[in-house]
Amino acid sequence: MTVIEAIESRRAIKHYDPDHEMPEEDLARLIELTKLAPSSFNIQNYRLVVVRDPELRKKLRSVAWDQAQVTDASVLFILCADLEAHLADPAKYWSHAPQEVQDMLGPAIKPFYEGKEQLTRDEGIRSSALAGMTLMLAAKGMGYDSCPMVGFDPEEVAKLIRLPDHHALSFMVAVGKQTKPAWPRGERLPDSEVVIHDRFD
Amino acid sequence: MTVIEAIESRRAIKHYDPDHEMPEEDLARLIELTKLAPSSFNIQNYRLVVVRDPELRKKLRSVAWDQAQVTDASVLFILCADLEAHLADPAKYWSHAPQEVQDMLGPAIKPFYEGKEQLTRDEGIRSSALAGMTLMLAAKGMGYDSCPMVGFDPEEVAKLIRLPDHHALSFMVAVGKQTKPAWPRGERLPDSEVVIHDRFD
Protein backbone atom coordinates (compact mmCIF):
# COMPACT_ATOMS: atom_id res chain seq x y z
CA MET A 1 0.00 0.00 0.00
CA THR A 2 1.45 3.37 -0.97
CA VAL A 3 1.75 6.11 1.62
CA ILE A 4 -0.79 8.19 -0.32
CA GLU A 5 -3.25 5.27 -0.33
CA ALA A 6 -2.71 4.75 3.41
CA ILE A 7 -3.44 8.43 4.15
CA GLU A 8 -6.50 8.37 1.89
CA SER A 9 -7.97 5.11 3.14
CA ARG A 10 -7.30 5.45 6.90
CA ARG A 11 -10.54 6.04 8.78
CA ALA A 12 -11.50 5.92 12.44
CA ILE A 13 -12.94 2.40 12.64
CA LYS A 14 -15.22 1.62 15.59
CA HIS A 15 -16.09 -2.05 15.06
CA TYR A 16 -13.51 -4.83 15.37
CA ASP A 17 -13.32 -8.60 15.42
CA PRO A 18 -13.06 -9.33 19.16
CA ASP A 19 -11.60 -12.78 18.46
CA HIS A 20 -8.64 -11.55 16.47
CA GLU A 21 -5.30 -11.67 18.27
CA MET A 22 -2.45 -9.68 16.85
CA PRO A 23 0.58 -11.95 16.30
CA GLU A 24 3.57 -10.98 18.46
CA GLU A 25 5.68 -10.30 15.37
CA ASP A 26 3.10 -7.83 14.03
CA LEU A 27 3.00 -6.03 17.37
CA ALA A 28 6.79 -5.84 17.49
CA ARG A 29 6.93 -4.51 13.92
CA LEU A 30 4.20 -1.94 14.60
CA ILE A 31 6.10 -0.67 17.63
CA GLU A 32 9.37 -0.61 15.66
CA LEU A 33 7.75 1.55 12.95
CA THR A 34 6.05 3.81 15.50
CA LYS A 35 9.42 4.50 17.10
CA LEU A 36 10.63 5.99 13.80
CA ALA A 37 8.40 9.02 14.39
CA PRO A 38 10.46 12.14 15.05
CA SER A 39 10.73 13.88 18.42
CA SER A 40 12.33 17.20 19.27
CA PHE A 41 16.04 16.76 19.99
CA ASN A 42 15.35 13.04 19.50
CA ILE A 43 14.28 12.80 23.16
CA GLN A 44 11.74 10.07 22.34
CA ASN A 45 9.51 11.30 25.15
CA TYR A 46 6.45 9.34 23.98
CA ARG A 47 5.47 6.25 25.97
CA LEU A 48 3.36 3.49 24.42
CA VAL A 49 1.14 1.58 26.82
CA VAL A 50 0.12 -1.64 25.07
CA VAL A 51 -3.04 -2.92 26.71
CA ARG A 52 -4.03 -6.54 26.04
CA ASP A 53 -5.25 -7.74 29.46
CA PRO A 54 -9.00 -8.36 28.88
CA GLU A 55 -9.98 -7.42 32.43
CA LEU A 56 -8.16 -4.11 32.19
CA ARG A 57 -9.72 -3.46 28.78
CA LYS A 58 -13.19 -3.95 30.30
CA LYS A 59 -12.41 -1.48 33.06
CA LEU A 60 -11.03 1.01 30.54
CA ARG A 61 -14.16 0.68 28.41
CA SER A 62 -16.31 1.52 31.43
CA VAL A 63 -14.49 4.89 31.74
CA ALA A 64 -14.35 5.48 27.96
CA TRP A 65 -18.01 6.10 27.12
CA ASP A 66 -18.53 2.32 26.75
CA GLN A 67 -16.98 2.42 23.27
CA ALA A 68 -16.77 -1.09 21.78
CA GLN A 69 -13.36 -0.66 20.20
CA VAL A 70 -11.75 -0.37 23.66
CA THR A 71 -12.41 -4.05 24.33
CA ASP A 72 -12.85 -5.41 20.80
CA ALA A 73 -9.79 -4.16 18.92
CA SER A 74 -6.80 -6.51 18.88
CA VAL A 75 -4.60 -4.08 20.81
CA LEU A 76 -5.33 -0.85 22.65
CA PHE A 77 -2.46 1.62 22.70
CA ILE A 78 -2.53 4.40 25.27
CA LEU A 79 -0.17 7.16 24.19
CA CYS A 80 1.51 8.98 27.03
CA ALA A 81 4.61 11.13 27.47
CA ASP A 82 7.40 11.30 30.02
CA LEU A 83 7.60 15.01 30.90
CA GLU A 84 11.12 14.57 32.30
CA ALA A 85 12.70 12.89 29.26
CA HIS A 86 14.73 16.06 28.63
CA LEU A 87 16.52 15.69 31.98
CA ALA A 88 18.37 12.49 30.97
CA ASP A 89 22.02 12.48 29.90
CA PRO A 90 21.91 13.80 26.29
CA ALA A 91 24.32 11.04 25.25
CA LYS A 92 21.35 8.70 25.62
CA TYR A 93 19.75 10.35 22.60
CA TRP A 94 22.76 11.58 20.63
CA SER A 95 25.56 9.02 20.85
CA HIS A 96 24.99 8.15 17.16
CA ALA A 97 25.57 11.67 15.83
CA PRO A 98 28.81 13.28 14.67
CA GLN A 99 30.76 14.77 17.59
CA GLU A 100 30.12 18.40 16.54
CA VAL A 101 26.38 17.76 16.53
CA GLN A 102 26.56 16.16 19.96
CA ASP A 103 28.58 19.11 21.26
CA MET A 104 26.03 21.57 19.89
CA LEU A 105 22.71 19.87 20.60
CA GLY A 106 23.42 17.87 23.73
CA PRO A 107 23.87 20.85 26.06
CA ALA A 108 20.90 22.67 24.46
CA ILE A 109 18.23 20.17 25.49
CA LYS A 110 17.89 20.80 29.22
CA PRO A 111 17.90 24.63 29.11
CA PHE A 112 15.38 24.59 26.25
CA TYR A 113 12.74 22.98 28.50
CA GLU A 114 13.86 23.86 32.04
CA GLY A 115 11.24 25.80 33.98
CA LYS A 116 8.91 25.87 30.96
CA GLU A 117 6.06 23.70 32.10
CA GLN A 118 3.68 24.45 29.21
CA LEU A 119 6.38 23.89 26.57
CA THR A 120 7.32 20.59 28.20
CA ARG A 121 3.71 19.45 28.20
CA ASP A 122 3.21 20.63 24.59
CA GLU A 123 6.26 18.60 23.63
CA GLY A 124 4.83 15.50 25.28
CA ILE A 125 1.47 15.86 23.58
CA ARG A 126 3.13 16.64 20.23
CA SER A 127 5.54 13.68 20.34
CA SER A 128 2.76 11.30 21.35
CA ALA A 129 0.67 12.51 18.40
CA LEU A 130 3.55 12.24 15.90
CA ALA A 131 4.06 8.67 17.15
CA GLY A 132 0.31 7.93 17.14
CA MET A 133 -0.15 9.13 13.56
CA THR A 134 2.81 7.02 12.47
CA LEU A 135 1.27 4.07 14.33
CA MET A 136 -2.10 4.49 12.56
CA LEU A 137 -0.53 4.70 9.09
CA ALA A 138 1.87 1.83 9.78
CA ALA A 139 -1.10 -0.26 10.96
CA LYS A 140 -2.91 0.52 7.71
CA GLY A 141 0.14 -0.60 5.74
CA MET A 142 0.18 -3.85 7.73
CA GLY A 143 -3.46 -4.66 7.04
CA TYR A 144 -4.98 -3.29 10.23
CA ASP A 145 -7.40 -0.49 10.98
CA SER A 146 -7.30 1.95 13.85
CA CYS A 147 -9.28 4.44 15.88
CA PRO A 148 -7.83 7.46 17.68
CA MET A 149 -9.77 8.37 20.83
CA VAL A 150 -10.02 11.13 23.41
CA GLY A 151 -13.46 10.14 24.68
CA PHE A 152 -12.51 8.84 28.13
CA ASP A 153 -12.14 10.04 31.71
CA PRO A 154 -8.42 10.87 31.89
CA GLU A 155 -8.21 10.66 35.69
CA GLU A 156 -9.77 7.21 35.78
CA VAL A 157 -7.61 5.96 32.91
CA ALA A 158 -4.50 7.33 34.64
CA LYS A 159 -5.43 5.38 37.78
CA LEU A 160 -6.10 2.16 35.86
CA ILE A 161 -2.73 2.21 34.10
CA ARG A 162 -0.93 3.61 37.17
CA LEU A 163 0.37 6.60 35.21
CA PRO A 164 3.43 7.83 37.14
CA ASP A 165 4.05 11.42 38.22
CA HIS A 166 5.64 13.60 35.57
CA HIS A 167 3.81 11.79 32.80
CA ALA A 168 1.00 13.11 30.60
CA LEU A 169 -1.82 11.05 29.19
CA SER A 170 -2.41 12.02 25.57
CA PHE A 171 -4.84 9.78 23.63
CA MET A 172 -5.69 6.18 22.78
CA VAL A 173 -5.36 4.31 19.50
CA ALA A 174 -7.27 1.04 19.07
CA VAL A 175 -5.81 -1.26 16.39
CA GLY A 176 -7.46 -4.36 14.96
CA LYS A 177 -9.38 -6.06 12.20
CA GLN A 178 -12.52 -4.17 11.20
CA THR A 179 -15.91 -5.84 10.96
CA LYS A 180 -17.84 -2.78 9.80
CA PRO A 181 -16.60 0.14 7.70
CA ALA A 182 -16.83 3.77 8.75
CA TRP A 183 -19.58 5.94 7.34
CA PRO A 184 -18.55 7.93 4.24
CA ARG A 185 -15.96 10.57 5.04
CA GLY A 186 -17.39 14.07 5.14
CA GLU A 187 -16.04 17.01 3.25
CA ARG A 188 -13.09 18.71 4.87
CA LEU A 189 -13.28 22.39 5.74
CA PRO A 190 -12.28 24.49 2.72
CA ASP A 191 -8.69 25.71 2.50
CA SER A 192 -9.97 29.22 3.13
CA GLU A 193 -10.74 28.16 6.73
CA VAL A 194 -7.62 26.17 7.61
CA VAL A 195 -4.84 27.41 5.31
CA ILE A 196 -3.24 30.80 5.84
CA HIS A 197 -0.80 32.27 3.33
CA ASP A 198 2.29 33.87 4.89
CA ARG A 199 0.49 35.53 7.80
CA PHE A 200 -2.91 35.89 9.39
CA ASP A 201 -4.93 38.96 8.32
CA MET B 1 6.46 4.48 -2.25
CA THR B 2 4.81 2.21 0.31
CA VAL B 3 3.71 3.62 3.63
CA ILE B 4 6.27 1.42 5.39
CA GLU B 5 9.05 2.73 3.12
CA ALA B 6 7.92 6.30 3.76
CA ILE B 7 8.04 5.80 7.53
CA GLU B 8 11.42 4.10 7.30
CA SER B 9 13.04 6.59 4.93
CA ARG B 10 11.68 9.86 6.34
CA ARG B 11 14.42 11.81 8.08
CA ALA B 12 14.74 15.39 9.31
CA ILE B 13 16.54 16.98 6.37
CA LYS B 14 18.35 20.27 7.01
CA HIS B 15 19.75 21.17 3.59
CA TYR B 16 17.52 22.10 0.64
CA ASP B 17 17.81 23.44 -2.87
CA PRO B 18 16.97 27.15 -2.39
CA ASP B 19 16.10 27.51 -6.08
CA HIS B 20 13.41 24.85 -6.10
CA GLU B 21 9.87 26.15 -6.23
CA MET B 22 7.06 23.78 -5.35
CA PRO B 23 4.48 23.70 -8.18
CA GLU B 24 1.07 24.99 -7.10
CA GLU B 25 -0.53 21.62 -7.84
CA ASP B 26 1.93 19.84 -5.52
CA LEU B 27 1.19 22.32 -2.76
CA ALA B 28 -2.55 21.89 -3.21
CA ARG B 29 -2.21 18.10 -3.16
CA LEU B 30 0.01 18.17 -0.07
CA ILE B 31 -2.55 20.30 1.75
CA GLU B 32 -5.39 18.05 0.60
CA LEU B 33 -3.60 14.98 2.00
CA THR B 34 -2.68 16.77 5.24
CA LYS B 35 -6.33 17.60 5.80
CA LEU B 36 -7.12 13.86 5.89
CA ALA B 37 -5.43 13.64 9.30
CA PRO B 38 -7.94 12.90 12.05
CA SER B 39 -9.02 15.39 14.71
CA SER B 40 -11.16 14.83 17.80
CA PHE B 41 -14.85 15.19 16.95
CA ASN B 42 -13.61 16.12 13.45
CA ILE B 43 -13.19 19.74 14.61
CA GLN B 44 -10.23 20.23 12.25
CA ASN B 45 -8.70 22.68 14.70
CA TYR B 46 -5.26 22.67 13.04
CA ARG B 47 -4.26 25.71 11.01
CA LEU B 48 -1.59 25.51 8.31
CA VAL B 49 0.38 28.68 7.71
CA VAL B 50 2.09 28.30 4.33
CA VAL B 51 5.05 30.66 4.23
CA ARG B 52 6.57 31.41 0.83
CA ASP B 53 7.31 35.17 1.05
CA PRO B 54 11.16 35.32 0.94
CA GLU B 55 11.36 38.41 3.15
CA LEU B 56 9.21 36.82 5.82
CA ARG B 57 11.26 33.61 5.59
CA LYS B 58 14.45 35.63 6.26
CA LYS B 59 12.88 37.23 9.32
CA LEU B 60 11.66 33.85 10.55
CA ARG B 61 15.14 32.37 10.11
CA SER B 62 16.59 35.15 12.26
CA VAL B 63 14.34 34.04 15.16
CA ALA B 64 14.82 30.32 14.46
CA TRP B 65 18.44 29.77 15.40
CA ASP B 66 19.51 30.80 11.88
CA GLN B 67 18.58 27.34 10.56
CA ALA B 68 19.10 27.16 6.79
CA GLN B 69 15.97 25.12 6.06
CA VAL B 70 13.76 28.03 7.16
CA THR B 71 14.74 30.01 4.08
CA ASP B 72 15.98 27.26 1.75
CA ALA B 73 13.16 24.71 1.76
CA SER B 74 10.55 25.11 -0.97
CA VAL B 75 7.76 25.79 1.52
CA LEU B 76 7.74 26.47 5.24
CA PHE B 77 4.62 25.28 7.05
CA ILE B 78 3.89 26.72 10.48
CA LEU B 79 1.44 24.45 12.28
CA CYS B 80 -0.94 26.25 14.59
CA ALA B 81 -4.31 25.54 16.17
CA ASP B 82 -7.51 27.47 16.67
CA LEU B 83 -8.34 26.99 20.35
CA GLU B 84 -11.95 27.99 19.78
CA ALA B 85 -12.75 25.57 16.95
CA HIS B 86 -15.02 23.63 19.33
CA LEU B 87 -17.30 26.64 19.75
CA ALA B 88 -18.52 26.59 16.15
CA ASP B 89 -21.90 25.14 15.13
CA PRO B 90 -21.33 21.33 15.21
CA ALA B 91 -23.14 21.04 11.86
CA LYS B 92 -20.01 22.56 10.34
CA TYR B 93 -18.12 19.37 11.19
CA TRP B 94 -20.86 16.74 11.15
CA SER B 95 -23.30 17.46 8.35
CA HIS B 96 -21.97 14.40 6.45
CA ALA B 97 -22.74 11.88 9.18
CA PRO B 98 -25.91 9.85 9.72
CA GLN B 99 -28.53 11.80 11.69
CA GLU B 100 -28.17 9.65 14.83
CA VAL B 101 -24.43 10.32 14.92
CA GLN B 102 -25.03 14.05 14.50
CA ASP B 103 -27.59 13.97 17.30
CA MET B 104 -25.17 12.17 19.60
CA LEU B 105 -21.85 13.85 18.84
CA GLY B 106 -22.84 17.38 17.89
CA PRO B 107 -24.08 18.42 21.34
CA ALA B 108 -21.12 16.67 23.02
CA ILE B 109 -18.39 18.84 21.52
CA LYS B 110 -18.78 22.13 23.36
CA PRO B 111 -19.27 20.69 26.88
CA PHE B 112 -16.29 18.36 26.35
CA TYR B 113 -13.92 21.34 26.08
CA GLU B 114 -15.74 24.17 27.84
CA GLY B 115 -13.77 25.63 30.73
CA LYS B 116 -10.96 23.09 30.23
CA GLU B 117 -8.11 25.26 29.09
CA GLN B 118 -5.39 22.60 29.27
CA LEU B 119 -7.48 20.02 27.42
CA THR B 120 -8.27 22.57 24.71
CA ARG B 121 -4.61 23.40 24.30
CA ASP B 122 -3.62 19.72 24.31
CA GLU B 123 -6.18 19.15 21.56
CA GLY B 124 -4.69 21.94 19.48
CA ILE B 125 -1.16 20.65 19.86
CA ARG B 126 -2.29 17.07 19.21
CA SER B 127 -4.26 17.90 16.06
CA SER B 128 -1.44 20.00 14.67
CA ALA B 129 0.97 17.11 15.22
CA LEU B 130 -1.35 14.53 13.64
CA ALA B 131 -1.62 16.87 10.63
CA GLY B 132 2.12 17.57 10.62
CA MET B 133 3.06 13.89 10.65
CA THR B 134 0.62 13.24 7.81
CA LEU B 135 2.17 16.19 5.95
CA MET B 136 5.71 14.83 6.36
CA LEU B 137 4.78 11.34 5.16
CA ALA B 138 2.67 12.67 2.28
CA ALA B 139 5.62 14.87 1.26
CA LYS B 140 7.89 11.82 1.24
CA GLY B 141 5.40 9.99 -0.98
CA MET B 142 5.39 12.95 -3.36
CA GLY B 143 9.19 13.05 -3.69
CA TYR B 144 9.92 15.74 -1.10
CA ASP B 145 11.80 15.75 2.17
CA SER B 146 10.87 17.56 5.34
CA CYS B 147 12.14 18.81 8.67
CA PRO B 148 10.02 19.25 11.80
CA MET B 149 11.25 22.11 14.00
CA VAL B 150 10.68 23.57 17.45
CA GLY B 151 13.95 25.54 17.57
CA PHE B 152 12.55 29.06 17.31
CA ASP B 153 11.40 31.93 19.51
CA PRO B 154 7.65 31.35 19.68
CA GLU B 155 6.79 34.91 20.69
CA GLU B 156 8.73 36.41 17.79
CA VAL B 157 7.30 33.91 15.31
CA ALA B 158 3.79 34.64 16.58
CA LYS B 159 4.38 38.36 15.95
CA LEU B 160 5.76 37.78 12.46
CA ILE B 161 2.79 35.71 11.35
CA ARG B 162 0.31 37.85 13.34
CA LEU B 163 -0.99 34.83 15.25
CA PRO B 164 -4.47 35.79 16.46
CA ASP B 165 -5.71 35.48 20.04
CA HIS B 166 -7.08 32.06 20.91
CA HIS B 167 -4.56 30.34 18.65
CA ALA B 168 -1.59 28.19 19.67
CA LEU B 169 1.67 27.96 17.78
CA SER B 170 2.78 24.33 17.63
CA PHE B 171 5.77 23.61 15.36
CA MET B 172 7.19 24.18 11.89
CA VAL B 173 7.69 21.74 9.03
CA ALA B 174 10.04 22.71 6.19
CA VAL B 175 9.38 20.85 2.93
CA GLY B 176 11.63 20.82 -0.11
CA LYS B 177 14.22 19.06 -2.25
CA GLN B 178 17.21 17.87 -0.26
CA THR B 179 20.78 18.66 -1.29
CA LYS B 180 22.47 16.75 1.53
CA PRO B 181 21.27 13.64 3.33
CA ALA B 182 20.87 13.37 7.08
CA TRP B 183 23.53 11.64 9.12
CA PRO B 184 22.83 7.96 9.79
CA ARG B 185 19.84 7.44 12.03
CA GLY B 186 20.76 6.50 15.57
CA GLU B 187 19.43 3.55 17.46
CA ARG B 188 16.05 4.11 19.04
CA LEU B 189 15.61 3.65 22.77
CA PRO B 190 14.91 -0.02 23.57
CA ASP B 191 11.29 -1.09 23.98
CA SER B 192 11.99 -1.57 27.68
CA GLU B 193 12.24 2.23 28.01
CA VAL B 194 9.28 3.36 25.88
CA VAL B 195 6.83 0.44 25.79
CA ILE B 196 4.74 -0.44 28.84
CA HIS B 197 2.62 -3.60 28.93
CA ASP B 198 -0.85 -3.09 30.39
CA ARG B 199 0.15 -0.73 33.19
CA PHE B 200 3.14 1.04 34.66
CA ASP B 201 4.92 -0.77 37.51
Summarize the structure in words.
Chain A has 201 residues and is of the alpha+beta class. The first copy, chain A, has one domain: NADH Oxidase, CATH 3.40.109. Helix content of chain A is 43%, strand content 18%. The first copy, chain A, contains nine helices and seven strands. The first copy, chain A, has a four-stranded antiparallel sheet. In chain A, helix 1 crosses helix 7. In chain A, 46% of the residues are buried. The model of chain A has no long low-confidence stretch (mean pLDDT 96). Chains A and B meet through helix 1, strand 2, helix 5, helix 7 and strand 5 of A and helix 1, strand 2, helix 5, helix 7 and strand 5 of B. Strand 2 of chain A pairs parallel with strand 7 of chain B.
Summarize the structure.
Chain A has one domain: NADH Oxidase. Chain A has helices spanning 3-9, 24-34, 54-62, 69-72, 91-94, 99-113, 117-141, 154-160, 191-194, and strands spanning 15-16, 46-51, 75-82, 145-149, 167-176, 178-180, 195-197.
Question: Notable features of this structure?
Answer:
43% helix, alpha+beta, globular, four-stranded antiparallel beta sheet, homodimer, NADH Oxidase, two-stranded antiparallel ribbon, 9 helices
